[in-house]
Amino acid sequence: MTHVRPPVSALRDDPHYLACVADLLGVLAYGELVAFERLAADAAMAPTFSDKTELAYRATLEFSSFLRLRDRLSELGLDADTVMEPFREPLDSYHSHTAPGDWLEGLMKVYVGDGISSDFYREIAHYVDSETSSLVLEVCDARNGDFVVERIRSAIEQDPRVAGRLALWGRRLVGEALTQAQRVAADRDGISTLLVGGADRPGADLAELGRMFARLTDDHTKRMQALGLAA
To answer: Which CATH number covers residue 171?
Structure first.
């Protein structure tokens, strides 16, 4: 499917489109801020100094991305606190329902939970102007959890019994993450308009939305396979 991007000038000339972009940058910004806090806390559970260092480094990347998003909102004449506020409750609810019980579950959440949410925002990036799309993709690409794969596979080799528990945890994470994505898309007019369009701009039809969520599920399956786990 060919996606028709709005022009960059729409951010200046179209208040409705600007409100849609504000929703997208707002949910991303709050997600990055919470991810920074979560990774910093997870580092306390890390069993080795190298693991602590890795998670602390990842936390700094998340905070750097938050600052980029906050600064972009400011450039657009928007207050970051105001724009992020509508997403506090749904994202906090997701994190409260997926609080890891140990180090391995925390790593899984970084790789699986953050992975599927990033995939969701990458999909939306097809429907925004090139400048916004580039920023969204750069932020999502910075959420690289590949370092998790080696740790999880090593843990399974040392104790194969953890595989079943982590597989179940992965299914729970993807279920909660997809529910969150669907909720955000349904509850916020800006996010839903970017996806499905409106009277003045094209968007995805129901068939394309179905394919989008199928892609999200397929990518999750590939991540689980990379970990040596059943999806």
So the answer is: 1.20.1260.10
